[in-house]
Amino acid sequence: MSNVLRVSKKVVGIRQTRNRLNAKLLTTENEELETFFSQERVNDKSTTSEIETAYIHDDPQEIFDEDILSSAIGDLNFEEPDSDVEFDDTQSQAAEESDDDSCSTQVPYIHVSSLLKVLHKDAGLTYLPLDSRTLLKSLRGKLLFEDMHPGKYRHFDLEASLVRFLVALQSKGIKIPSEIKLLFNADGLPLSKSGSNEFWPILVRIQGYDFVFAAGIYQGRGKPADVNVYLKFFAADIHQLRRSRLQFEGQTITVSVCGMSSDAPATAYILNIKGHNAFHGCRICTTRGSWTPTISKRTNARSGGRVTFPEINAPLRSDSSFRKRENIQHHNKNQIRSVVEDIIDDLTADVHLDYMHLVCIGCFKKLLNVFFCHPFDNIRLSPASLLAISAFREHVRQYIPSDFARKPRSAKDLPRWKATELRLDLLYLCPVIYKCFITKNSYDHLMLLHVSIRLLLERDSCQADADYANELLRLFVQVSSQLYGPAFVTFNIHSLIHLAKGVKKHGSFEDTSAFCFENKLQVYKNMVRPCGRSLEQLVRRIDQECKISVLSVTSRVSSAAQKPLVLKMLNFCGPILPGLLSGKQYKQLVLENTILTNSLPDNCVIIEGNHVVLIANFVWEYEKLYVIGRRYLHQENYFSYPLPSSNIYEIVVSQLSHTLESFEFCEVKYKCIRIPTFFPETGSYFVSKLLNLNIN
Fold it and tell me: What dihedral angle (degrees, nearest 10) is formed by the CA atoms of 570, 555, 235, 163?
């Protein structure tokens, strides 16, 4: 692709030179200018001959292959213009004069078409199409949609998507599974902040693999009026696959639905039950909420109120009681049964409580709002404390490993924090950042949430630790009303007592969260230009993605042989130890799911014996990989309540050794995040193991 763009740039340069010369010829007949013109023509001719020579080849396909060009263009994030929009010549010229970097992001299809015309006319590549839509094999003509009040719907065949997934597994040498478990999500995606137009995609994730795809997309002004009409095509595909099962190259594969993961409003809509603000809104137990007025000032003035759920020992719902409508107040008055009841086996255990919305956005952000914005002075942090916290967070940014998409932001930006930022804060930063600013009771209360969520997220041990984590969460809910008032225990806080139940059946709720679905929604939103016919644009983009992109599929159950070690960035300046002088040195090690480097922030690991080591170099010697580094000589617990922090691989370290040591790479167990315990730094650091990122 870069070769094509460079050639087109030369062609454009020739044309621009000719235009400049013609303009000068019309304005003057000076003899000196004539000499200049002749020189320019000589240069122009030589440049033209170079380009013509470049195209003298027995088989031009060897230089410009249509499939290669199609694949290269497909990798770019192109946008197709709406057919009603007209583009003038300035846009085409801008595309012709752009360099490779500008073409690598957000290149409109009109620019690609202009490039193809130049290559067709000036470079003689007549076998290339003249339009980008032909090159990318876009869907042409009028697309067919299902009318679905108050909008329209496009369905994607579920079996075809699964076959495409299996083909990708086969091409990567990953074993074809005998059973495919599907987790689905349905949620709204506003297309703009100023309008009511929105998407409602039905997204599906194949459990055990990082692969999310769309089974159907609705677009309209508001959500679909009838949830059963919205889901009927998806439900029909599920029933068909259950009956006949999936056939792939002589192998019969069982397909099942392991659950649904959405936020509380979307779940209530899909199941046709009362929302989270209703008195009978809890989906797991039969507790009845109570109305609690909101106290806004010390004068006990009431300003509205909310439904709270202080009871933690109410009887649990069962799948049978849900289907029989034994608690009729929990269901909507229209008594319409959702088609989801026919495709999900257990409507209480398999409709997951999503920890992204429930814990990160719902509970932890609510707790931070208490610290930052509570109306009572004895709870709210002072402005000086907030400034100190913000400065600490800004300083910690340099210590955040590359595994995290977002770095910490100032406390004043809390209303705009994303779920990934809240997750980073809850799982790794909160034990350190808030310890010196909140009271001991509040800190111990925060540690109950921090420890329990870490226990429930760890794939290797979450089911064994589920009962203990459940005790911590129940205690967290009980203490919440004592510390922050009864109005604090709303639906999200109450639902914490039910998290461990889902983990005991399905494993870590990292595998049932909505993070992957939210990421896919953002991808779809970026595919659409704000020029009308959004659903048509998205359907064409998804179709092109299926045709020309290489499907990225990874498996969490792959063997060690499928996890290659890639060493990068040769290092010639050490440090090195005497026994490894003849080995090759490297600065970076790329693994399947993370990277390790010899510099901040990706250089902290835990090795055998639970020693914390800072990596200084990688050496390949004697067909083995060695890690050279320095270990911390002093390690201790950072907190002791509700358990010693070292039990969950969180410790405070100090006294970095001056002596270099070498370890075989197989001794490295975990990658860690390392942040200073104080700001300004004092030489001690808080080290926390990255969850579900085991190295060996």
Answer: 80
Could you tell me if 438 and 385 are in contact, meaning their C-beta atoms sit under 8 angstroms apart?
no
pTM: 0.83
Q: Give CA–CA dist 93/114, Å, rounded.
A: 9
Which among 460, 465, 428 has a CA at the least distance from the CA of 556? Answer: 460
Q: Are 186 and 228 in contact (CB under 8 A)?
A: no
How far is it, in rounded angstroms, from Cα 22 to Cα 36? Answer: 12
| Residues 450 and 430 sit within 8 Å (Cβ to Cβ) | yes
**What tokens appear for 605 in the block?**
């690991």
**For residue 205, what is the enclosing H or E element?**
strand 197-206
Tens digits of residue pLDDT in 58-70: 343 333 444 444 4
The residues that bridge with 154 in the sheet, in sequence order, are 217
Report, as an integer, the average pLDDT of 7-33.
47
Reading the block at residue 24, the tokens are: 């000068």
Q: Indicate which CATH number applies to the domain containing 605.
A: 2.30.30
Confidence of residue 293 (pLDDT cuts 50, 70, 90): confident
Same domain, yes or no, for 674 and 620?
yes
Please tell me the distance from the alpha carbon of residue 515 to that of residue 521, in angstroms, as a whole number: 10
Q: What is the mean pLDDT of the chain?
A: 84
What's the distance, CA 571 to chain centroid?
A: 33
Q: How confident is the model at residue 335 (pLDDT cuts 50, 70, 90)?
A: confident
Number of structural domains (the chain) is 4
* Apex 642 CA angle, 639 and 648, nearest 5: 65
Residues 128 and 153 in one domain: no
If asked whether residues 196 and 169 sit together in one domain, one would say yes
- Assess whether 376 and 500 both reside in one domain: yes
pLDDT, position 13: 55
455 against 622, higher pLDDT: 455
* 3-state secondary structure at position 568: strand
User: For residues 57 and 319, what is the distance between their CA atoms, to the nearest angstrom?
Assistant: 71
Phi, psi angle pair for 88, to nearest 5°? -90, 180
Are 581 and 674 in a shared domain?
yes
The per-residue pLDDT for 551 is 60
- My answer on whether 114 and 177 are in the same domain is no
Burial (0-12, 13-18, 19+ Cβ within 10 Å), 314: middle
Sequence-separated contacts (24+) of 97-100 with Cβ below 8 Å: 97/9, 97/12, 99/5, 99/9, 100/2, 100/5, 100/6
The full length of the chain comes to 696
Same domain flag for 647 and 667: yes
CA distance 595 to 403: 8
| Helix boundaries (H) for 335-424 | 340-343, 355, 365-373, 383-396, 419-424
Cβ burial 626-661 (10 Å sphere, 16+ → b, else e): bbbbbbbeebeebbeebeebbebbbbbbeebeeeee
State the Cα torsion 447-450-451-453 to the nearest 10°: 150
- Rounded to 10 deg, the angle between the 2-27 and 109-121 helix axes is 70
Residue 145 pLDDT: 95
Q: Which residues of 110-127 are buried (b: 16+ CB within 10 A; e: fewer)?
A: bbbbbbbbbbeebbebee
Burial class (CB in 10 A: 0-12, 13-18, 19+), 421: buried
Enter the tokens of residue 484: 């922050």
Instruction: Determine, yes or no, domain membership for 286.
Output: no
C-alpha–C-alpha distance, residues 485 and 481, integer Å:
4
In angstroms and rounded to an integer, the radius of gyration of the C-alpha atoms of the chain is: 30
Q: Decide: 448 and 479 in contact? Cβ < 8 Å.
A: yes
Residue 102 CB partners (closer than 8 Å, separation 6+): none
